[in-house]
Amino acid sequence: MIDFAYAADAAAQPNILMQFAPLVLILIVFYFLIMRPQQKKFKAHQAMLTELKVGDKVLLASGFKGTVKKVGEQFFTVEIARGVEVEVERNAVASKVA
């Protein structure tokens, strides 16, 4: 009689796969809605930084707009006003202005 009780109790427990299905679904949605677009944006920004050359107009993260005067390994020299040149890190360049 006790054996039947254990068998009935084991059948009532949900499948372990069904317990983790919502978690897996949330992780998949999180990847496609948040992580993948961020990776694409990061790659596009890195490609834009590698293509910058002297004379390109850029917008800095601080809001200044200027012209690239010197391209270095880690830094750019940007002229933000006539005779005013600043040296900024590569990641401080937000975008290229047309």
Automatic annotation (TrEMBL):
Entry's Gene Ontology cellular component terms: plasma membrane
KW Protein transport (keyword) present: yes
SMART domains in the cross-refs: YajC (SM01323)
Bilayer topology term: Single-pass membrane protein
Sorted UniProt keywords: Cell membrane, Membrane, Protein transport, Translocation, Transmembrane, Transmembrane helix, Transport
InterPro entries xref list: CAP-Gly_dom_sf, Preprotein_translocase_YajC
Cellular compartments annotated: Cell membrane
Keyword Cell membrane: yes
Annotated protein name in UniProt: Sec translocon accessory complex subunit YajC
Organism: Neisseria animaloris
